[in-house]
Amino acid sequence: MKPFDVYPLFDIEPVKGLGNYLWDNKGEKYLDLYGGHAVISIGHSHPEYVKKLQEQTASLVFYSNSVKNSLQEELAQKLGKLSNCKNYNLFLCNSGAEANENALKTASFFNRRKKVIAFQKGFHGRTSGAVSITDNPNIIAPFNENNNVQILPLNDEQALENAIDENTSAIIIEGLQGIAGIYEPSISFLQKSTKLCKEHNTLLILDEVQSGYGRTGDFFAFQKANIEPDIISVAKGMGNGFPIGGVLIHERIKAKHGMLGTTFGGNHLACAAGIAVLDVIEKEQLMNNAITQGKYLLEELTQIDAIKETRGRGLMIAIEMPYEVAELRKNLLFEHKIFTGSASNKNTIRILPPLNIGKEEIDIFLNALKKEINI
Q1: If one looks up domain 47-283 in CATH, what number appears?
Q2: Mean pLDDT, contiguous 10-residue spans, the chain (375 residues)
Q3: Nearest residue to 120 via CA among 139, 102, 101, 134
Q4: Cα dist. 116→9, 35, 173, 186 in Å?
């Protein structure tokens, strides 16, 4: 048997990670400015994270959700405090797609409706419900096609007002559109969405799977708009590489036994990973670092005339060139040993490093980028 061949792979095999760096099986060192799709939030092999997982592994890795698990309560309390989202309850699962599935299901249970409004260029996952609200026909199988989904232009307030009605269960918006190439909903659009949802008894779901956990400098990207979504989905940076996801559900939405469920979600080892991440983000003030380093990177990038546009906040940044960037990314990787991210916008490089990155690492990237674009 062989792995099912669905991933186009670079001929590199990382075998070790530490901080902002990776090493491959040949001993080559790489600067990681992608974090495996914004997953590595506190740096590779952070000692506090490693210690927490080792201790938990030696104690208890897993038992089912049929018994008490105080680690779930600790994780929920710390997440509520650090995110300042105290009016929510937490359902734990295993991934971003699963978080969005449960978010959509919760909304539909709440108002007994089916219709969902999502947005052009959006990505919410590859599982059945999540992929049906994702604006990419190439990954939607006939089985996933769903007539209850309406996809609108992002930031078009009039289109949203025209589309929402008494059949709309939820509006789902990414805090920043990640895979698309870092496109941001405006403050006005987020506030308008909140107002329309309240008027129509529709739930507002903020997909913070990629943009959450301090990546933008706020704990959640939507917080710049001073709104309170009904549901927030999280994953990626939540476990620093350990599979974990979550759904923050506003306390006005009441739970009942059997409404949601999972075998592995919220297991002891996953919770240990999640707690370690929150502890490090708080102790090392990584949200402040995301603001500082992101501001520096954006300021430096805006001085490079060859760049068409920069987008983003904190350490969720897009660099758009006036040409396709596949060759540029390849050169950065193989010539300069720097990992960067692609986007569905083929002219765009995404920068999604660990939140503890420093100016020194950013300068390494800037020098490599300038060399490749002949500055």
Answers
A1: 3.40.640.10
A2: 96 98 98 97 98 98 96 98 97 98 98 98 97 96 94 98 98 98 98 98 98 98 98 98 98 97 97 98 98 98 97 98 98 98 97 98 98 87
A3: 134
A4: 34, 31, 11, 20
Using DSSP, state whether 287 is helix, strand or coil: helix
- The CA–CA distances, whole Å, from 6 to 3, 126, 139 equal 9, 13, 12
Domain ranges of the chain: 14-46+285-372, 47-283
- Which tokens in the block code for residue 58? 């030696």
Residue-level pLDDT at 371? 96
Answer yes or no: are the C-beta atoms of 350 and 365 closer than 8 Å.
no
Q: How many helices (H) and strands (E) does the chain have?
A: 11, 14
User: Are 357 and 293 a contacting pair, CB within 8 Å?
Assistant: yes
- On whether the pTM is more than 0.90, the answer is yes
Q: Report the top-level CATH class of 14-46+285-372.
A: alpha beta
The H or E element that residue 93 is part of is strand 88-93
Provide the residue type at 365 as one letter. Answer: F
Name residue 358's amino acid: G
Q: Are 23 and 12 in contact (CB under 8 A)?
A: no
